[in-house]
Amino acid sequence: MSSEQEAELLDAIERVDRGEVLSAADLLSRLKTCPWPGGMSTSNVSAAPAARADAVSFTADALVVHLRDGRVITAPLTSSPRLHRATAEQRAKWELIGRGVGIHWTELDEDVSVSGLLGLPD
User: Fold this and answer.
1) Would 46 be classed as within a structural domain?
2) 24-31 vs 3-17: helix axis angle to the nearest 10?
3) DSSP string spanning 30-47?
4) Is it the case that residue 81 has pLDDT exceeding 50?
5) Please, which pLDDT band fits residue 47 given cuts at 50, 70 and 90?
6) Using CB atoms within 10 A of its CB, is residue 42 exposed (0-12), middle (13-18) or buried (19+)?
7) Using only C-alpha atoms, what is the Rg of the chain?
8) For tag attachment on the chain, is the N or C end more exposed, with fewer CB atoms within 10 Å?
């Protein structure tokens, strides 16, 4: 891939990250210049994760995620700079996403996945 092609591909990625909608033709034309032989491959989609969050709480220095199956995951707040810097009031404004596969704090623009807390791929 030439540096010009790479710059075009990075530009397209940045545009999508900003919320712009690109046409399928535009994306395909950029992916054809992909450096991998044969273009990009697809990955296998596994079954939905079994571990789902049910509730969230905090200690003075940790995020505590209560799972539907009864397990409890504790992670230090230092593992998430946004949660670490947040006030208790901001931390309390969480919502489950994806039927419990993750937790989102709108005010903090922070997402935490249950899989990530368990050290599994998302």
Assistant:
1) no
2) 140
3) HHTT-SSTTSPPP-PPPP
4) yes
5) very low
6) exposed
7) 19
8) C
Supply 33's token pair: 């210049």
Query: Are the beta carbons of 118 and 73 closer than 8 angstroms?
Result: yes
Domain that holds residue 98: 53-117
CA 88/CA 77 separation, integer angstroms: 12
19 shares its domain with 63: no
Q: What percent of the chain clears pLDDT 90, i.e. is strictly above it?
A: 54
d(CA 90, CA 77): 13
For residue 46, the model assigns a pLDDT of 47
pLDDT of 44 strictly over 50:
no
Q: Is the dihedral of CA 26, 10, 45, 71 positive or negative?
A: negative
